[in-house]
Amino acid sequence: MISASPPTPRVHRRRGWVIAGAVISVLVIVLVLFDWNWVRPPIERYISRKTEREFRMSDLHVRLGWTPTIRMRDVYFGNAPWATDKAMAQAEMVEFSVSLRDLPDKILVPRVALTRPDLVFERLADDRRNWTLAEPTQSDEPSKLRISTLSVDQGRLRYIDHGEPFELDVRASTFDPASQEKVKDADAPPVNARYSTEYAFTGKYHDASFSGQALTGEVLSFQESGVPFPLKGRLSAGTTKVEVEGTIADAADISAIDVRLLIEGRTLANLYPFLLLPLPASPPYRLQGHLTQKGPRYTMEDLSGKIGSTDVTGKGAYLEREPRPLLTADLHSKLLNIADLGPLIGIETKQTGGKPDLSQGETATRPAAKQKDKAVTPDRLLPAGEFEGSRLQKIDADVTLTATKLVVPHALPLESLDAALHLHDSVLKMPRLDFGFAGGKIAGRVTLDAREPTIRSDVQVDLQRVRVDRLIPDSKTLAKGAGRLGARLQLQGSGNSIADAAAVANGKLSATIVNGEVSNLLDALSGLNGGKVLQLLVGGDRDIVVRCGGVAFDVKRGRGDANLFVIDTEQTQILGEGWFDLAHERFDVKVEPKPKDVGILSLRTPVRLHGSFKQPEFQVEKGPLLARAGGAIALATINPLAALLPLVETGPGENTDCADVQKQVRGAAGQARQPERKR
């Protein structure tokens, strides 16, 4: 008997290869002949069960690989039970890829292509989102789904956010760029090969409606891709219009922006509901620049444009941070029209016929910013337009502004501006608010504390070396030479408008003048010295020195009372007394000229200045005047020459102690006394 020998290792290997080849052949045949629709029903049931939403499709095809591509037709996916619409997504075709390498940490979808989709994304105020696909017991966890890029062919997308609130309705359509070039309308934006999809959108943000159009490439980068896509678009929101052209990355949660931006509108305040920036109620504006974003920081370079008739250049940045965002800006203007800044503080503008163009209260849409501004009455001078203190609580800011030349209403001699603003934790400080003024300087420092509903204010204004001749440049008689005026205003008050704060303000007001000149004729007229007037008319006028002058008022609860009032020339000492009322905008001041030399034909009498700030009145005190005139008439019945005796000025005026005046002005003491006359 012959026994069979066992198979050799080579035979075993050959048999193994045959079996493996057969298995592979069977798998290839199965894959070639396999119809993915065989597994479509169980997939539909599985997805519907896991998401607790209805899911169905009419056709399924899969291309395998490390990043398999799935194509589905006639797709229907139900919405969350709490959502408004029945379906969250419907599409004629959906094609997407899935990165197997990123499982199970997240479901990364590098690409989604939709044909005729109708999508609805909805977010509730409690942050529930209908696109979160976690199981109901884990609905508070963030979704693992990440979509990188999206392309849409003839579709519609709606986004509803009940928390903001925000609504967006987008309709997308694709086109052939070459054919679009041939048929494009003359008014349509330029189109080139970069753009192949058009989006028309409408929406509403905090009750502010908007609409627009945008052109993009075939694909949008959507989530966590960091891949920029081209964008050219226009947006209109009321009178506000925005145009952009450049690139944006991650449309759903923007991670990068690099665009040229142009924005124009009726007033900057209308941007508040969109940007949440407390911008002023400005005249019509048009601004453009280069906007970029990296992470939470937005930067505007090459900023240029106009606000009203004021030109603006510079740069700025906006940083998203907690608890408040930070706005920084460095702005410059060659020609700044002060009237363009008037509405910021409630000043009347010519364009609105006595009413601020658009107040912050009128342009706001949030409840905290809907308080109506006070009417600015024609007989008032102090601005009554209200600041919206709540807006100062929304943001921090560091802003500088310089203007080479100013255009000022009523020919005020303001020449230039250099200002700095710091807003932090609802407290606005302006450590520098400096104006070139009449050859000198107005140096201001302002603090507004908006931590409470009623704003507290602290204002200090210094007039430094102001030239008197430039204050009244058209009158050589009233102001001559190089006389210098200095003054200081210190007020603390509370109120949401300048008028309200001034009405209850406490502080001091003081002013001094040195080294000035005035017409000898004017000096004689101030004392109603007829004899000197006749002498000057015959012999000629000349200039005399204003030795010094000083005024000091104590201000309590909006009322200022003079504790020092003197102007001293070579020939006349003028003393005064009086008060002003900031709440009612009225004043009453009496000045009494006291000539220093003996003269005849003098009808010297006090002069009273009074009335409203806007319409002051002037009158001569009749009592002393009538007394002198009556004395002259009575003496004339005895002796005609004796009638001149009451009209003889004996010259009681003495030289003022100017050093004492300047000391009192500098101190602005509450109990400062009137200057003593030298004996």
Topology:
Elements: H1 9-33, H2 40-51, E1 55-56, E2 59-63, E3 69-78, E4 87-97, E5 107-115, E6 118-123, E7 145-153, E8 155-161, E9 166-174, H3 177-183, E10 197-205, E11 208-216, E12 220-221, E13 228-237, E14 240-249, E15 256-265, H4 272-275, E16 285-294, E17 297-307, E18 310-319, E19 326-337, H5 338-341, H6 360-363, E20 396-407, E21 414-424, E22 427-437, E23 440-449, E24 456-467, H7 468-471, E25 484-494, H8 498-503, E26 506-519, H9 520-526, H10 530-539, E27 543-556, E28 559-569, E29 572-581, E30 586-595, E31 607-612, E32 616-620, H11 622-636, H12 658-667
Parallel strand pairs: 5-7, 6-8, 19-20
Antiparallel strand pairs: 1-3, 2-3, 3-4, 4-5, 4-6, 7-12, 8-9, 9-10, 10-11, 11-13, 13-14, 14-15, 15-16, 16-17, 17-18, 18-19, 20-21, 21-22, 22-23, 23-24, 24-25, 25-26, 26-27, 27-28, 28-29, 29-30, 30-31, 31-32
Helix pairs in contact: 9-10
Short description:
Helix content is 16%, strand content 44%. It has 12 helices and 32 strands.
Would you write up a description of this structure?
This protein has four domains: 35-141, no CATH class; 164-256, no CATH class; 266-503, no CATH class; 506-667, no CATH class. The protein is 16% helix and 44% strand. The chain is built from twelve helices and 32 strands. Strand 16 and strand 17 (297-307) form a beta hairpin. The relative contact order is 0.04.
